[in-house]
Amino acid sequence: MLITGNSKEVSRQVDFIKSSGKTVGFVPTMGALHRGHISLVEQCNKECDYTVVSVFVNPTQFNDKEDYKRYPRVPEEDSKMLKEAGCDLVFMPTEQEIYPEPDTSIFDFTPLDKVMEGAFRPGHFNGVAQIVSRLFDIVKPDKAFFGLKDFQQLAIIRRLVQQVNRPVTIVDCNIIREADGLAMSSRNMLLNADQREAAPTIYRVLMQAKELVTELNPDQLKAYVTDQINVNSELKIEYAEVVDAGNLQPIKAWNDAQSVQLCVAVQVGKIRLIDNINLI
Ligand code: PAF
Questions:
Q1: What would the pLDDT profile of 78-101 be if each residue is shown by its tens digit?
Q2: I want to staple 169 with a disulfide (CB 3.0 to 4.6 A). Which of 143, 176, 202, 215 is the partner?
């Protein structure tokens, strides 16, 4: 497995691989890898001849400086896990390598970026679009793999590749959960014991909500989810939204959309967790 921080070396290596007719798959990450990331790498290995993984904590997508500082960074462990998972190339750039000049590009993903994470984390998706388009320029993958835990991010990345007309297939991969249902996230390692014990309530409530679709309307379901999560004193809901899975806009009646997603963001102390479930 090749590990490099040099973007030119990545592009050269990918060009070389592609010149022999092989396909290149890409898994962008911010490191602190867990089994969720590894499942993306495994999916990539299955679908592509050559797997590239990037590990870069992207400053432009953090609207909260403390969150950026706190974000876990464990490059040695990450490299070890990636090697075991059969990754071919790890790109671990410095901030200077990615942003020699500040990135001033502005993206507009209206209406996808106006709700949920977009509303609560101003500038977040612009930063995600900046880094993902830069990484796509360097890696030029045939396919790129993203987890469905970041449901809104996935919709935005699909829109991004349409807007910039980039020939990459976006593959969405299932949420990987701990045995107690907590969605895997690099942020989970920042939870203390009490917070970790409380966190699986999030998914438990999402599953209860799915059972209640025939009894409650979308607004009532949002209120139910908010109350049930807030019952646990370690958890404070930031939003619970029932949205059209296609355009991410809140719905008022179940037949307002063909496919409906329930998305939540929850503060657990200083740590912010997100999760979602398909309702219809
Ligand atoms: O989902 C993430 O980990 C990040 O948002 C991504 C896509 C790697 C961009 O920094």
A1: 999 999 999 999 999 999 999 999
A2: 143
Low-confidence ranges of the chain (pLDDT < 70): none
* Percent of the chain's residues with pLDDT above 90: 100
Structure tokens at 102: 């500040």
- Mutate which of 37, 90, 132, 170 for ligand 1? The one with the most ligand atoms within 8 Å of its CB, which is 132
**CATH dotted code for 2-173:** 3.40.50.620
Active site residue 124: no
Q: What is the 85 CA–ligand 1 centroid distance (Å)? A: 19
Kindly report, residue by residue over 123-143, the tens digit of the pLDDT.
999 999 999 999 999 999 999
Which CATH fold would you assign to the domain 186-278? Answer: Pantoate--beta-alanine Ligase; Chain: A,domain 2 (3.30.1300)
- 28 CB under 6 A from ligand 1? yes
